[in-house]
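Protocol step 4 of 6.
Sequence for Ankyrin-3 (Cladocopium goreaui) entered exactly as in the expression construct, tag removed. Do not edit the line below.
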Amino acid sequence: MKSCHFQREVIMYTDKAKKLADTAVQEQATGSAVLAAKHMLEATKLMHMAKEKKVRALKVRALAERLNSQVLPSYKQAVDIAGLHASFSGLQTSQQRHRLLRKKT
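Step 5 output, structure tokens:
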């Protein structure tokens, strides 16, 4: 599912962001302020991307739920009507054939 794909990406981005943030904290503690700032900025960007992916996943899910509740029932109804039409047409053909056979005898 597409939504599942987005969910995996959100987890991936979040995990990577947490690792970068942890690295940045360690770098800050050892006096590497510039590198720490760089890694923290990357972590922030990844968290933002994860948030965007989550929003997109929720939209995909909402669309899927709307399709399931609105479109699919209409499709099923159309299939049922087509089946009834085919049955009725078959019945009419059968009745016409029966009448023709009766006329010949």
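Step 6, annotate. Residues 2-104 form one domain.
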